[in-house]
Amino acid sequence: MSTPFYVSPQQAMADRAEYARKGIARGRSLVVLQYTDGIVFAGENPSRALHKFSEIYDRIAFAAAGKYNEYENLRIGGVRYADLRGYTYDRADVTARGLANVYAQTLGTIFSSAGEKPYEVELVVAEVGETPEGDQIYRLPHDGSIVDEHGSVAVGGNAEQISTFLDQRHRDGMTLPEALKLAVQALSRDTNGGEREIPAERLEVAVLDRTRPQKRKFRRVEGRRLARLLEPGGGAAADEADAADEPGSGEDGA
User: Fold this and answer.
1) Are the beta carbons of 243 and 64 closer than 8 angstroms?
2) Residues contacting residue 129 through CB under 8 Å, at least 6 positions apart
3) What pLDDT digit, counting tens, does each position of 229-244 carry?
4) Around Cβ 180, how many Cβ atoms within 10 Å?
5) CA-CA-CA-CA torsion sign (184, 139, 16, 115)
6) How much is the pTM?
7) Half-sphere exposure of 111 (CA within 13 A, CB side)
């Protein structure tokens, strides 16, 4: 009888972590930044059907990098959790911290299980507060740990290089055009330190806007408004196009 091949638990976990990191690195990066009136999400995404950013609940949004089918399952589970908790208790009881804990348990269980491969995803759960001090941003790596982020965060692809770029340039009190242009500059950085141009048509952008009168603070930024925000001095021009874009700017046109 042959002796079973032995792998130490430490080596097995290291191998699973390396497998997940390589899968996440193959995806395009995305960034999440705080600005004066809320939180902006930006990422390179040529698809108009497969979204990286989605609304979870009134003030909560979800961003993910990695394998689409895996993070889409997590997104759907998060929506169900939020709807059930809000219906059973109160809408105010649905928080980004609670949702992050649920995701952490799910990712941690899958990562530790020897019967299935780890998820190749990295998540960001964000909640916009009444003031900038009340904003919450949580990053969840593949192993289910939770990292409380402030100001800016990048995941997927060359996230480490982008995070360094953002840490040096992001500041409190930025306007939406300033934050969005900084996000695009960060995403345009190549691994060798150069820059490339990302046209507006290849960008997916969304915001949690605390100034919206509706309970639902999530909205997608696209079309004319996105193009004008990216122009020099584009803030005022984007406001002019805001009314025209508003009916279809929410999640699924809501």
Assistant:
1) no
2) 59, 135, 136, 210
3) 998 876 554 554 454 4
4) 27
5) negative
6) 0.88
7) 24
